[in-house]
Amino acid sequence: MAELRRLADAGSADAAAQLVELASERGDMDELRRLADRGDRDAVDQLVELAAERVDVAELRRLADGGNRDAADVLAELTEDTDDAE
Question: Which domain of life is it from (predicted)?
Fold first, then answer.
């Protein structure tokens, strides 16, 4: 993983894509967050998906507060589901 990270940091799109895939498979939110913070759109998408699966409201809120519309939508759905359950 360290070599993929090095290559991705050097600008290799293939390495970045592999890193996103591996991080997603492993559920590695820290790695996805690192890649997302560097502007990797696929990492952002996977981070939103993983946060939604885990019902990680804090992560979804962080992403939504950063302008991610998908995270805001998922957060709204989760909030709606919570309101409906009450």
Answer: Bacteria
Structure tokens at 50: 């993983």
Give the Cα separation of 77 and 51 in Å (integer): 13
Model confidence over 5-18: pLDDT tens digits?
999 989 999 999 99
Orientation of helix 41-53 relative to helix 57-65, angle to 10°: 150
pTM of the entire structure?
Answer: 0.84
Which residue do the tokens 């996977």 mark?
Answer: 46
Q: Is 55's pLDDT higher than 90?
A: yes
Structural tokens at position 14: 């293939």
4: its two tokens: 């993929």
Contact 40, 20 (CB under 8 A): yes
